[in-house]
Amino acid sequence: MTTAGQAPGQAQANLVAIPGDWAYDFLLFTHRNPKPCPVLDVLDAGETVSALKRDADVRTHAPRYRVWENGELTAEPEDATGFWRDDLVTFLIGCSFTFETALVNAGVPLRHVEQGRNVSMFVTDIQCRPAGRLHGPMVVSMRWIPESLVDVAHKVTALMPSVHGAPVGAGDPKMLGISDVGVPDFGDAVEHEPGDVPVFWACGVTPQAVLMKSRPPFAITHAPGQMFVTDMPDFAYRVG
């Protein structure tokens, strides 16, 4: 079940748990690629409770998880406790679902929420800046936005850089190496209304594409669109 449209007003986060001997590489990767990977919290190795949600366990609070071994997806449990390791360092990364309430309040419709679907996500041909052993492409989320409201959507989200900020593209998806917006790499296909144009934001699923390319021996992530919902209000990540 996607968390899009759920818990309005609360910040949501992507989750990546990676062995400690890869954690510096990952931290450096997020520093070099802040647009798709804005870090909200980092837990010590073995720690399972974040300051962003003190009454939740990071192993069970997301609706679904993904287990990765050597870059291959090996399991998608609803509870990751049985797969957890004491050496895992957990990163919580900003999610664009956090700015969706602000978009709605500004009069921008959310087609995927209206249709009860997950947002569409695509692997682009934009390569992230490598860090240590980690490398790979940027993933983007796409929302159909009425053309007359694209500037509004840009201004609203630009004020929230900790949850991906302003779009990285709008209009022609081929600019990002996306051949068909009807066939997402992650999430669901979403129908558009007349006058809508596709608008693309950097996405916190980028680390999963990086895991597939870089092939660390082990990692656990959330399932795309099934986020770690925090107790932080979304406006806490608004600047200006």
UniProtKB/TrEMBL annotation:
Family: Belongs to the D-glutamate cyclase family.
Pfam families: D-Glu_cyclase
A GO term for molecular function: lyase activity
Organism encoding this protein: Lentzea jiangxiensis
Source species taxonomy: Bacteria, Bacillati, Actinomycetota, Actinomycetes, Pseudonocardiales
Organism superkingdom: Bacteria
Annotated EC: 4.2.1.-
InterPro entries the UniProt entry points to: D-Glu_cyclase, Putative_hydro-lyase, UPF0317
Signal peptide: none
Swiss-Prot/TrEMBL keywords: Lyase
Main EC class the enzyme belongs to: lyase
Protein name: Putative hydro-lyase SAMN05421507_1011296
